[in-house]
Amino acid sequence: xxxKAEDAATAGVLALLLEVSGTPKAGNVDRxxxxxxxxxxxxxxxxxxxxxxFLKAAKEEGSIGKLxxxxxxxxxxxxxxxxxxxxxxxxxxxLIRCWKAGDICNAxxxxxxxxxxxxxxxxxxxxxxxxxxxxxxxxxxxxAEETEQKLVEQNINLYxxxxxxxxxxxxxxxxxxxxxxxxxxxxxxxxxxxxHEDINLAIVYTYHYLLSExxxxxxxxxxxxxxxxEVRDRAKEVLNEFEMSFNIEILRSFxxxxxxxxxxxxxxxxxxxxxxxxxxxxGLRF
Length: 286
Description:
By secondary structure, this protein is mostly helical. The chain is 68% helix and 0% strand. It has two domains: 5-134 and 146-178, Triphosphoribosyl-dephospho-CoA protein, CATH 1.10.4200.10; 182-282, Triphosphoribosyl-dephospho-CoA protein (Orthogonal Bundle), CATH 1.10.4200. Helix 12 (199-213) packs across helix 14.
C-alpha cells in the first residue's frame, strides 16, 4: 500500500515507463523497436508528462473521465504521436484515484458508477483526440458520429457505457469486472521476480503470459478473430518453450515474427502496465 498520494502518482508513471521498457514484448514498441508513427521516446514523453494528472487523481481531484481526457491532452502536448497511452490511462487513472481503498476492485467499480454523462463525453473526446483503434460495436460505438448525442439524450455515465462493450474489449471488461486479469498479472509478475530477481524479464514474462491467455481486441480489430486466436495459441507455445530454458532469444524470435506481420497486441501492453502498477502497490521494489 502506498503511504501518500505522491507515491500513488509516481507508481503510475513508473508503471508506464517499466511497461514500455520491457524488452522484448512481441509485436509492441520497446527499447529495441519503434513503429513508423510511434517511437519508444513517445512513451517516455507521455509517461513523464502525466504525473500532474495522476497526482490529481490520487488526491481525488476531478472525475475519472475528465482526468482521462486531461491525461491524453497533457501527454500530446509533449510529443507529436497520436495514441500512446489511451488504454493505459483508462486502466490506471481509476486505480490511482482509489489507491487508499482496501478493496481497490470494488472501490473502482463504485467510483465508475458515480461518474456522469460528462465523464462519458470526456472519454469520447479523449478517444477521438488520440485516434486510438478499437473494435466496432453496433450501439454507442466510439467511432459512430451519433454516439455523443445518444450519450446525452440517454444520460449514460461511464460505467453504463462500459457495460455496452463487447466481451472481447478486455480493457472495458477489466474496469467493470474489478481488474481480474491485472491482479493475475500482478501475481505472475511478483512470483517471477521473487524467483529470478530480474525486473525486465519479469515484465516480459508477464506480458507473454497475458498474451497467451487472452485475445487482444486490437488484433481482432485489425486482423480478425482467427489471427487473434492464432497469436494467443502461438504465445502459449513460445512461453512453454521459454520456460524450459529461459533463453530470451526465444521471445525475441516471436517478437520479430509478430512485427513482420504488423501484429500489435496493444491492449495486452495496457494490461501489463496495470499489472505492474498493482505489483508496485503491493510493494514491488527492484
